[in-house]
Request: fold
Amino acid sequence: MTTQIENSELPQLLQSMADEIHDSLAGKNPLIIGIHSGGVWIAEALVDILDIAFFDAPLGTLNIAYYRDDFTRIGMHPQVKPSDLPFNVDDRHLLLVDDVLQSGRTIRAALNEIFDYGRPASVTLAVLIERNGHELPIHADIIGQSVNLSASQHIKLSNNDGLKLEFTTNGDAE
Amino acid sequence: MNLQIINGRVINPASQLDAQQDIFISDEKIIAIGEQPIGFHADESIDASGLIVCPGLIDMSARLRESGQEHEATIDNETRAAVAGGITSLCVPPDTDPLIDTPAAVELIEERAKKAGRAMVYPIGSLTQKLDGQLLTEMVALKTAGCIGFSNGRRPIENSLVLRRAMEYAAGLDLTIYIHAADPWLQAQGCVHEGAVSARLGLTGIPEAAETIALSRDLLLIEKTGVSAHFHNLSCGKSVELIQSAQEKGLNVTADVSAHHLHLSEHDIGNYDSFSHVIPPLRSIRDRDQLQQGLRDGVISAICSNHKPLDNDAKLGPFAETTAGISGLETLLPLTLKLLDDDEITLQQAIACLTYNPATILGIEGGQLKVGAQADICIIDLNAHYECQPHNFISAGKNSPFSGWLFNNQVTQTLFKGKTVFLKG
Amino acid sequence: MTNNQLTENGHLRHFLTIEGLKRPLLTEIMDHAEQYSSLSHRQVKKVPLLRGKTIVNLFFENSTRTRTTFELAAKRLSADVINLNISTSATSKGESLLDTLHNLESMHCDMFVVRHNQSGAAEFIAQHVAPHISVINAGDGCHAHPTQAMLDMFTIRRHKQHFPDLRVAIIGDILHSRVARSQIHALSTLGVGEIRVIGPKTLLPSDCKTLGVHVYHDMEAGLKDVDVIITLRLQHERMEGALLPSAREYFQCYGLTDDKLSIANPDAIVMHPGPINRGVEIASSVADGPQSVILEQVTHGIAVRMAVMSIALGAQSEIEAQS
Reply:
């Protein structure tokens, strides 16, 4: 039932995402924001393909730890790098990038955080993988690949020696 | 009414006795030890097989909070606690409210004690009126009323001239004075030993010198006046040295230590444990060891409870705001005998520090088993095994830092004037 | 001694003292503070992390400055804040202190930030509050002021890379200083090479060395080769009288002047927990000089307190999961 993705297909998926981004945002002086950690890696890969000149400023990064909705259930998250948006978001077209879209909660948190920086003109969401399991009315505009997994299956993007997708199966669903 | 206690291991420090003997009691008094008197017929027999039989304990310093602080404790209840701890005689310091500075106050305490009928209660009279360190009390009248000695309680006499006069006056009448050595200025607002723990916890410390400076002054005046003096509740190793050299000089000076100072140090305060808040403060481990050594050497000849029962609220608060004091009647014997575990002292010595030695200092009859003596007797099981649970104390004060300590000795029965006043349930 | 500041899993639940906490925990606080300090550049300077939480500033001793930074920290985390100034004369007995606490507990508060003039008060309160409440010590008597110490560590980290290479000197009234005690614990936990205290003997605790510091009574010797200088506030009531002859003489001996500062390493930073007594513990020219990071300390105070509050309330999730 699973749609597996071979890691060898990643460059091709990223290329098709870049093409789509180009089509929808060219001429709008977009700004790109990756969500820590996987989204930042994907965003970096997209910047490489599209060329930095496509975007109006260096890559912004978001750490949504302080916007999560599970604080009262699991407390503080381990440290990642702080949010860093090296630009003003007011009235700008933003490209928000994440690795995997599942429940939509991360994107909800990211949108809230972005709006604490200012009021963008638009936000386009690009994700490498969109999987089943949505819990919020949030959908990606640009998708590398849609997959259908059982509730016990997880996808994780790693970046030790090149981007790699790992599919794991275990009992505890996140 | 005839009573016999048979098969017990009788320990009587006064005669260095430690042997299995039977004791025969008739009408409040011991009438024979060893051989059963001819014609004696026991109405009641206590089988003390496997148990220690010794004189009822004498506690030289216990605050019973009556009169004045009856909301915290009463003589009736606290003597009940005392006999549960094997104590049949205790001395109360004069800082009750009203103070023990008039014959009427003495009589009130004696009357309450007599009514309770469980233990001898010996009031220690005030050395100065209202304990204010200015004017002498009527010591003769107080002695006649029943005061066993004189003290200014925990209120130091600041004026050395007043102290000198008080000592001279007492010396002339052959009265013993009892002293808590403390320099009021060095002690000031302190609540812990000045040392590593006060530095760490940010609490105002009481330096060792608060005790040793006062002690040195007092010893010089004792030498000058020739009074008999007893120092309560030493807390520092250096104090032991000072007492020792005074004794070697031939001064008539004795000292006691509280049971908790023999076991605890400043480190037991941990994170502001108010149950370890006591004055004089728990000092360094070295001080504690030197106090034990002083006991072994006989420089310190008595161990007392320094019992101070407090209600729960008194210990609830930031450390310095809590009231100092430990409820000690029911742990006096277990803590003293716990010293045997580490071979600090012998059983004979331990019992002596709780019986014969204090009796000698106080100049009272009790503290020994002999024919004709009042039958105040304590029976102890040395093979008990239990955990100290202050909330089960009989004393109104549950304020003890020894909660959870394991003890292996327990009073099984206490007799006062030949009557059982405590029997372990 | 058990550390009742931590949950069973070793997370910070109360923040009462630095003593006994491990280095990773202190680093975690500073790392979070680093993130929070980035918020000050944003249009909206708050995050919704503690939305719905109620934090009570329980001040038994007046301190507008400290209270304000705690209040701001809580508000930037979107918590609701109540400020209560309770004069200690109204609660002279522990009994009524507990009454106050239990009253607040029944209003479903989540955190008490406590300032009290008695050493051990925060510890006492932490021992007696309901399990769902975190206690942050905002200064107890002469004992501890852990958030102040952490903001000082944070400030040092911003300027100096590697704690083990540092020599830090703390100058002044160590005896009565909760700040100094917490700083000493924090510095030694972070592995600082050498901690010195400098002051007249009347203002140093006896057995000061047991705190793990080198003791100096002379600025000349004490400031040599030092990378971080922390001056402490000298309380007015201690200036004249038995502990010190006069404020003037204190400044002469222990006041940080440009001359004395020049004894330390040239890149040494100068810190002070505030408020400053100019011309008593520090000369104006030094306090306002290029080596001073005193105002930075104030700024960092907010981020560090946000870090502590969010970590402690985050640990509450474990407690609730257990109950």
Summary: Chain C has a mean pLDDT of 92. Chain C touches chain B through 31 residues (CB under 8 Å). Chain C has two domains: 23-145+299-322, 146-293. Residues 206 and 298 of chain C are 31 Å apart (CA to CA).
